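Task: encode each sequence below as structure tokens.

Item 1
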Amino acid sequence: MTDTANKQNNHYKPNWKDRVADNDNPFMMIAAIVIFAILAALALKLIQVNLMPYMKVLGLPEFKPSNTPIVGWAMDLLHLLYFATGAVILWFLVNLAQVIWILIALDRRAHRTAVREARKELDRQGSQHESDGQIRKLKRRATRVPFFFIAASGWIALAAFVAEFLINLKAYPPIRSWNAFIAGLTIGDLSPINFNQVAAILWGCFSTELVIIALIIVGQWIWSHKNADN
């Protein structure tokens, strides 16, 4: 039996050379898993760093992190969870609110249910024309009710970003002297601004979400590769 005939056989399993030739490189899965593991390890350190402004705002004592990668970072998180429970819980709730719109955006089942409920509402309303503008407005609003959780998640995330910005602003004040800052504005002198503090604020506000998005992207890559058609 020839190679072509073997490949047409339903029980034929291509070897790794054939898979590479067909652009189904098995090493891509290994690369994706390694990247995902690296991101997960960095997330341990990232959480610990981003907890610092919450601890400052709550008046908790300064924490000295471990210099041991991964294992030390994990132990640091356990230590913080025990000694700074309030800061951990507050950080978790704020950041969960920030990423909830991402989780909802990826929930295809929830989207299908919302579409189905909206169609049911349209079917209940029928095609009868209403002359009253207020009634038409209420009917249109009723069809949007199943999608409320999608719209609300964006507002929740925005409020959470504002809250985290204020927390980081309190922990890392970017202006050394307001009098010097106001006077400097008139001559274009930006030296009263502590740009290291500004960078710390931006990092605290956006780094967690960026790592979560990266983890989701790589995780989806792994899932798609694993479930691809042979």
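Item 2
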Amino acid sequence: MCEWHPQDWLLVAEALTAHAGDPRELDEREARAWELVDDIADEQDLPVTELIEQIDDDWPQSESGER
């Protein structure tokens, strides 16, 4: 995986879980989103259940301000 800041990975995981919704009723893309969240949790050495709790809502934007 690329060398993003841990907060960047958590942001991606948050977006994936928002897209995937309820993990008990999944289509193929939603199932893949949950697989990616599992991979991110492993990469960040966090249980999936704690992943979103680690997000810092005050994490600053990149210095360039570009999106």
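Check on item 2: The chain has a mean pLDDT of 81. The chain has one domain: 6-54.
End of task.
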